[in-house]
Design a protein that fits this description.
alpha+beta; Pnp Oxidase, Chain A
């Protein structure tokens, strides 16, 4: 990779790589590891799905009362990792501030989800202990009975955007001499530099 091949905006560059991953048929190329931390800085990580990228940053949706939602409420900084292990073997990492998306945007996305997923958002109190699988299935059946085919957006569910302050692009090369570039946000734009692998 040459720095001249990279777009000056890391979100545009990410879009290029993501399009290549999609065209290559990578299964679940939108999978990303999202790391958050609690008020005391103790980290946690999990896998979520990217649901969009635009000039604001990386978009994802979840239960606001989940562990990640609670952590983001007290410490609105997070990091994410995309790892595509098949050729050309690439990775993208990003870190920045996370904010909730407007409710109208969460509502619009929620309406695109399969019915079962919308009902599941009502049935699951994500990250909370439950007595049994049967309790979860009963909660799902109750949501289905109450809302039928048109469940509304739960107040505890919606979207976030991670607005990156830095983004790194990594591409595998022989002898562990990988290509690695970092974008760092500065007043008025982005600084782009090559890093040692």
């Amino acid at each position: 990779m040459d720095v001249r091949e990279l777009h000056s905006d890391p979100l545009v560059q990410f879009g290029r790589w993501f399009d290549e991953v999609t065209a290559a048929g990578v299964v679940l190329g939108e999978t990303m590891t999202l790391a958050t931390a609690d008020r005391d800085g103790r980290p946690s990580a999990r896998t979520v799905l990217l649901k969009g990228v635009d000039e604001r940053g990386f978009l994802f949706f979840t239960n606001y009362q989940s562990r990640k939602g609670r952590e983001l409420a007290v410490n609105p900084h997070a990091a994410l990792v995309f790892h595509w292990p098949s050729e050309p073997r690439r990775q993208v990492t990003a870190a920045g501030r996370v904010e909730r998306l407007p409710e109208a945007e969460s509502e619009a996305y929620y309406r695109t989800r399969p019915l079962g997923s919308r009902l599941g958002a009502w049935a699951s109190r994500q990250s909370e202990p439950i007595p049994s699988r049967e309790d979860l299935e009963r909660a799902y059946a109750a949501a289905e009975e109450r809302y039928g085919r048109d469940p509304p957006l739960p107040a505890w569910w919606g979207g976030y955007v991670l607005a990156p302050e830095r983004v790194e692009f990594w591409q595998n090369r022989p002898n562990r001499l990988h290509d690695r570039f970092r974008y760092a946000r500065e007043p008025g734009g982005w600084r782009l530099e090559r890093l040692s692998p």
